[in-house]
Amino acid sequence: MTKQMILESPSLIDRLVRGTNEWSLIDVRAPSEWDKASITGFVNLPILNDSERHLVGLAYKHHGQDAAIKLALELTAPHQQSRIDGWYQAVQSSPVKIGVVMCWRGGLRSLTACQRLAEAGAVTMQLAGGYKAIRNELLKHLVAPPSCIVLTGLTGSGKTSLIRQLNGSETGVTRAIDLELSAGHRGSAFGAGDFESQPSQSRFENNLALQIIRGSLASSELLIEDESRTIGNVSVPDALYKVIVSAPVVVVDEPLHVRSANIAQEYLQVPLDRGVPLEALHEKAKLALTSISRRLDVFGPKLSEQMDSAFKHGGDLQRHQEWIEALLVHYYDKSYYHSLNRLKRPTLFQGDRLSCQAWLEDYFAKKSMPFAV
């Protein structure tokens, strides 16, 4: 048997952040392991399903490795060929027809999959140290994040769209960390459910680390949107959060009517255009309002009436802007000013969205570094 080719984690990470990976990335861990902790770019094609893994684990614990391997072969025998076929098809679908196979620690599961693929004529590499090794490499960049400036401003001022526009340059170089995209959540009570689902905490952290590494290749300093410690069900890592609450800021300053129009467009018109029923949007908005009702105090009932009245008149954005403006004034703006006064971060620049965009583009042009691909 030929010696199995091994790939080290830093080499794979480098390909991922540079966008040059042409290999098929296969994670053969069980679905429950994948759900809890995974790496963007890998596809989950288990060698053992959850029930099989549980039984094999018990056999290993009570009778040793040989007994566990024997049981694994017995349990997977009826499905072995279909699983090999799935791995093989994944490898062959890559541009260069090469697969990288990963399990938890780069042990028997990924080795077995690589051997079966080799017998089928596929070219593979086993990821050394498995998921645990690549996870440890990524965590290094969250424990000691790079220097950043923070994009802040009142809700609806267009911070997130500006972050994404700055990342959408012709070069495709990332200089801004998109926390909401990584978290699968807009970071507010009204932002829940705008993504298909939220990732696990580990996957969120892994995505953040990849963004940071990619950005650090292009710039000596990164831009990150102002966020609270928690974004839906995930939390910003401690070291990165300390950067957010202490770094200098660029403030996007837009008037109330512009902000309410942005919110109405983003939370109402865009989903309506995608085919989301108005009734579903109304129900979602009512649930979000209920979740913050205690902090609205006496303004809650009036705001609820305005919201219901607007939805009765359909998708007229101007009517919806009335309750959105009240929500901004009585809830979001108060929270923002409280945070702004508490943190006392130095301000590098303040202006409307277009002015901030121009300032940031000039600022990062001076901070840019060659991004070798």
Describe the structure.
The protein has 373 residues and is α/β, with parallel strands linked by helices. It folds into 2 domains: 6-138, Rhodanese-like domain (Oxidized Rhodanese, domain 1, 3-Layer(aba) Sandwich); 144-367, Rossmann fold (3-Layer(aba) Sandwich), CATH 3.40.50. The protein is 57% helix and 12% strand. It has helices spanning 9-18, 31-36, 50-63, 65-76, 80-92, 108-119, 130-143, 159-166, 179-183, 201-218, 238-244, 256-273, 278-291, 293-296, 299-312, 317-343, 353-367; strands spanning 6-7, 24-27, 42-44, 98-102, 123-127, 148-153, 176-177, 222-225, 230-231, 234-235, 249-252, 347-351. β9 and β10 (234-235) form a beta hairpin. The radius of gyration is 25 Å and the shape is globular. It starts with 5 loop residues before the first strand and ends in a 6-residue tail after the last helix. The model has no long low-confidence stretch (mean pLDDT 89).
Give me the oligomer status: single chain
Query: Count the strands?
Result: 12
What percent of the residues sit in helical stretches (DSSP H or I)?
55-70%
User: Which outline best applies?
Assistant: globular
How would you characterize the largest beta sheet?
5 strands, parallel
Q: Find the CATH topology of the largest domain.
A: Rossmann fold
So what's the CATH class of the largest domain? Alpha Beta
The appropriate CATH architecture of the largest domain is 3-Layer(aba) Sandwich
